[in-house]
Amino acid sequence: METSSLIIFALLLPLVGALIISRLDSMPNVREVFTLLTSTSLLVVVIALYNRLQDGQTEAFVVAEPFAGLTISFALEQLGMLFALVASSLWIVTSIYAIGYMRAHHEKHQTRFFALFAVAISAVMAICFSNNLLTLFLFYEVLTLSTYPLVTHAGTEKAKKSGRVYLGILMGSSIGLFLFGVLLVWFYAGDLTFAQGGVLSGKLPEHLALPVYALFVFGIGKAAVMPMHKWLPAAMVAPTPVSALLHAVAVVKAGVFAIIKVTLFIFGPDFLQESGANHWLIWFPMLTILLASFIAMTKDNIKERLAYSTISQLSYIVLGALLANSLGLLGASMHIVMHAFAKISLFFAAGAILVTAHKTKVSELSGLGRKMPFTFAIFLIGTLSIIGLPPFGGMWSKWYLALGTLEFSGPEFTRWALLGTLMISSLLNIAYLGAIPMKAFFGKLPEGSDKTIKEAPLPCLIGLAVPALICIYLFFSPEPFFSMAQQAVSSGQ
Known about the structure:
The protein is an all-alpha fold. 73% of the residues lie in helices and 2% in strands.
């Protein structure tokens, strides 16, 4: 099969799966088996594409040309493959977990959930393999629209209100800022195709680099750089598997992935450094890292605390992109992977706590670790990887980000402020995430506690264990993600 056919297959397979899943409402067992078969099949296709990429097959192909010179086209490249491997592998894990969670929590509209999840994964695959800015933008919007019903899944007034915030911020920022940036790239470069060294290099006046780049940093609202972050905590009203989709598998990662792509292949790191545009904008992710961490410390609701943790961690990736040097971009690319596996472990653990113990607040967790030792051990592993301690994968991405700050081309004061931000943030990670397993394991179980509390159903435990084990595995063997990230960064220089 040709490489182009495999890419189309990767885009269509989840859509066909969604269509079939939607017809299996009366047969939940068959629906769930088919969900697992579809997600596993997609991973097989993505691995086949990875093998093609390793053989040097990167040719682009056009699917449609709605306007002269403006095409919807796809291609294989290293950064997109890195994201595709993460998303496709975590779809399987999330599906296994969701089967146990949705049944144990007696969620309504389960068929709609699994079908729309598949549609969202299809949009992610299109984003991964997009060959130009127009294609990326179109499927970025499809991802927003397909996940909106998942955010409002509960159908309550609170869910509907949160959905309006979600849709309003993401659509408003993308149409008002992101799309305007795309149009300016077309105006100055006459081309939207991702290119080595950046399509704008030598074509966009240097004094316009700052405002045009800012349109992407803030217009790509899924990256949640403050003040474009409110949609993310609002969306926590959704079921836990949806939170996992938002925070680890698809939505936020699509945002930071887009910012790295724009940095590497639209502006180019050299052009950003020469213009100095990144010197001013880098303060926004730096402040987001710290402010979101401080806000997380004030949140008693577990999912809200994790939401602000995600906002902070996403800005690690944005900061790495804005460093516009090889080490920073390498750290940012690696953090897409490391954060995905660590954060999905944390959200799965939070969901397991809700399903079995019916607890949603940190203050309610005292002593619960003795009732659910497996769940809180997984939470601890995810926490230590987020903090960046060995032997967990999160150490590598934070290491390269820290090295990237030391090579920042801006003022020396900014350089040390960036490094200090990363160090302080890691200490804050200990405070607001480490406190949860510590309270659960070493706190005193309240008098009259429910003695029937036990671990979550087996599918939930499997879903918990897999990403946590990968966090450990990635410390000892970060390949193939490390080599793909290196090649992606070098191809953008």
